[in-house]
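Hi Q.,

Before the meeting this afternoon, I wanted you to have the zinc ion prediction in hand. No need to reply - just skim if you have a minute. The sequence and ligand are here:
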Amino acid sequence: MKKTILIIICSLSGFALQPTHGQTTKNIVFVVMDGLRWQEVFNGADTTIINNKTFVSNKEKCMKKYWNSDVAARRSMLMPFLWSTVKEKGQIYGNRTKNSFVNVKNPFWFSYPGYNELLSGYADKNINSNEFGPNPNETILEALNKTDEYKGKVAAFTSWDAFNDIINEKRSGVYVNAGFEKMPDGVAGTSTALLNKMQYHLPDIFDGVRLDGATFTMGFEYMKQNKPRCMFLVFDETDDFAHGGRYVDYLNSAKYGDEFVKELWDWCQATPEYKDKTTFIITCDHGRGVTTDGWKSHGTKHEHSDETWFAIIGPNTPAKGEITSGQFYNEQLAKSIANLLNFDFKANHPIAEGIEAVKAK
Ligand SMILES: [Zn+2]
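Predicted structure with the ligand bound:
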């Protein structure tokens, strides 16, 4: 009798104390920093590039801002949020010097194929151009937006104007604000008109690509006003400054990207709709070359530019910090997002398996 009571008490208290292993992720914030190399993410600024006058005119200033002989200190100078909060509470994949490998699966190693892979979970060989036009593949954003639960609660703010096609805005109905696109009146609250106007008064240095500070601010204000359940943000300066051989600007933009993520994370953690029920995924669409000149570019002519990285932080993701084993692919992130939301992502194309380690059982 005593034993029975004890068993009942134990199982009752056990039940009550059991941490919830069910779904807690209700929202996704998915951030991509275009063409930001894993080399800088994990090792910080690279002296072989800093020492080259072609790429860095004021070496002393650059060293002061981004150099420390200790690699952990150095990478924290570049991406302080990633290497504090995300490292402590999340998972960071892709440090090849520690046997963690992430690659794109598509055979092209440039943007549209990379974003299609990330969003549709399918490294489609037919998507072979940045001017491909409307994406035939259904993305995780579109699939979510088709459901009653997420309809009208999926949004994308991107610096590059190709995303109206990549997300197939017309077919998917996902709200996409890409390139120098105006927001509809009032959609970002009282700041809407000001932000719409401001974007046209910034330098158009990348030919149709909006500067990231504008994309971020517009997206963030939209988020505050509309509380989307799935928010996709893409910053582009890292890629464009690298193509231009402007290494300090490339580093600065990586740092701004890290600051954007911090601001979004802090706001989410202070906002009831998002607090402790939002998972952040941060990644890139491709890597870059590694030779003296090669870091500027990417594509199959530039070895190693298929090498990528990603980071993840949220209520379902066990805190493992820097991952030190395994091979993963960008195409796995779409299904990983679906798994975190307990959403059954199906489309009329193959979808790569999600990554189990990002979600506790
Ligand atoms: Zn590029």
